Amino acid sequence: MSISVTPSIERSLPRAAIGGLTVAAILFIAFVVLPSVGSDYLFEAILTPFLALALAGVGLNLLTGYAGQVSLGSAAFMAVGAFAAYNFNLRVPELPFLVSIVLAGLTAAGIGLIFGLPSLRLRGFYLAVSTLAAQFFVQWALTKFGWFSNDNPSGIINAPPLKIASVTFDTAVGRYLFSLGIVTVLTFLAWRLTRAQTGRNFIAVRDNQTAARVIGVPVLRTKLLAFAVSSFIIGVAGVLWAFAYLRTVEPAGFNLDRSFQILFIIIIGGLASIRGAFLGAGFIVVFPLLLSRLGGELLGGIVDSGVVEMSQRIVIGALIILFLIAEPKGLAELGRRAARRLGGRPT
Amino acid sequence: MSSATTGALLPAGDLYPFEPAGVTRDPGRSRSGPAERGADVESAQPGAERDAVLAISGVSLRFGGVTALADIDLTVAPGEIRGVIGPNGAGKSSLLNIVSGLYRPSAGHVRIAGVDFTEVPTQRLAHLGVARTFQNLALFGGLTVLENVVMGLTSTIRSGPLGQVLGLPAARREDAANRAKAEAIVAFLHLSGVAHRPAGELSYGLQKRVELARALVARPRLLLLDEPMAGMTATEKQELAAFVREARDTYGTTIVLIEHDIGVVMGLCDRVAVLDYGRKIADGTPHDIAADPLVIDAYLGVAHDADETLEIEEAV
């Protein structure tokens, strides 16, 4: 039963270096290469929504993947972020836009904290149902009280342009780069969090609450922190969704479907994995577009477009089921396994 | 005050006992000491209770109409390995859950490190210098072995989430120090080879050992082991027994060991208490226990006359 010592550390070093290089390469492509070659369609219809949803996925993954608290209220926290940013921007015009975004995140964190309180008593499905309350309550409040939308009769507000100092990001590429910058910073901080003691506390609470309590993990505080941090990130994702992608702020953009979409993103991408949120968001955003192009080209002339769209949904649904049966741990695990196989190391 | 004591138990980077405490360094003495005192230490020697690392007095536990524990007294002297044995359902785990605050006793109180509790605050357990393992595996499956062990130091963490995320010097130093401590314990328990594997992937025996490492890393004054050898092979049991003894001898940890397997307990423990149907039916050295007719009845089936004695006792 003697076990050989050493190789683990030596093995983990080059892997960390490879990971760092990969991230650097992706960032280089995203920041430098794509803006010079991509089309407006790519940025407006694919990359910007992808970034916003990926960020929301990162936020939800902290809460659900790492801390094990299931939430169906993600879209509500996105809405809180978007409306808070709009109102801070409107009512305190001298506030720099970045500060408005941070304040919007903090507002979402506050609301998330309140709706996280049931997690102190409820777990699993019961908690998920109680987070639905956030979804319905926030949407109701935003529609009911005109103050939030500045008494706009239609309830749909045009979002003001994105601005840092005197630079305005009002082109498709500009909005994309703005989103990319914010997503990069927040994702890096989230990644740091998962690697730190606080992230380990999240996992400990998820994996064994009793053992965590005995060791001295402040279980209640950890859960509430997870809700707050997660809602902060999701709130900022909401700002990006409304300001950079839709360019309107309206409650309908943040309905229950959106919450489910974000949950699917992290399940398909991989729970408790930062990378998973991006892979999942890529799948959810890009795949339907690809399918619709393919469907349009193959069947466009023959079959009614409504039928084409319906069959796409069926195909996507079937693929999700098949995929989850084949790889329940998500795309991130699939990638990890492929990398391991390429590296020639047996599992 | 409690955190200060815990701190004193954790000299940074020091793997060796900082206090040459005679009691803990000399197993022979700690073994013979209690032996002379005999079976009812608690009532005969109030001084022993005052010095005890753990003193349970008059603890009862009732779930509805079911009595899981009835008026249990138990003291644990510094540096000893204290066994608690008994058949299934005797209340051993319940007793440990009361000591770690997961259950609230219906009556009686628990004295840990000189402080009396009617309900032990689980959240402060680590600060009181108490660590425990669980009967069923209770590792954090999503963390690596090393990370699991680092988690054992949670109660000593000073840095906040923000400091950790931003990588402030204090947080980084703390993290590095904790990793070093964890690596030392991991090496001590011969787990270095699997240190970076997810804990959930390991074999049952190894996972049990990781749990021991996680409990030991904070250098607890009192370590509660709930059936650490359950489900192990004979070889694994012997290995773990050796580790437990070594932990006591090296770190001076006082250990309460709950075990189903009499054989292991007899070889390992300085004193053994026997529970049956929630009552303590014997308490003494392994030698005394082995000869006690009540214990033999409880374990090997009940001889007719002994059965009557029990019934009379219960009636009284």
3D architecture notes:
The complex is a heterodimer of chains A (347) and B (316). In chain A, 75% of the residues lie in helices and 3% in strands. With 347 residues, chain A is mainly alpha-helical. Chain A has one domain: ABC transporter involved in vitamin B12 uptake, BtuC (Orthogonal Bundle). In chain A, strands 1-4 form a two-stranded antiparallel ribbon. Chain A has a two-stranded antiparallel sheet with strand order 2-3. In chain A, strand 2 and strand 3 form a beta hairpin. In chain A, helix 1 packs antiparallel against helix 6 and helix 2 packs across helix 7. Chain A is globular and about 65 Å long. Chain B has 2 domains: 211 residues, Rossmann fold; 86 residues, P-loop containing nucleotide triphosphate hydrolases (Rossmann fold), CATH 3.40.50.300. Chain B is built from 15 helices and 10 strands. Chain B has 316 residues and is an alpha/beta fold. Chain B starts with a helix and ends with a helix. In chain B, the strands form 2 sheets. In chain B, strands 6-7-8-3-9-10 form a 6-stranded mixed beta sheet, with helices on both faces. The longest helix of chain B has 20 residues. In chain B, helix 10 packs parallel to helix 11. At the A-B interface, helix 1, helix 6, helix 7, helix 8 and helix 9 of A face helix 7, helix 8, helix 9 and helix 11 of B.
Strand elements of chain B, count: 10
The domain count of chain A comes to: 1
Strand proportion of chain A, as a percent range, falls in under 5%
Question: Based on helices, strands and strand pairing, what is the structural class of chain A?
Answer: mainly alpha
The oligomeric state of the chains shown is heterodimer
Q: Which second-level CATH architecture of chain A applies? A: Orthogonal Bundle
User: Counting H and I runs of at least 4 residues, what is the number of helices of chain B?
Assistant: 15
CATH overall fold name of chain A? ABC transporter involved in vitamin B12 uptake, BtuC
Distance N terminus to C terminus of chain A? 21 Å
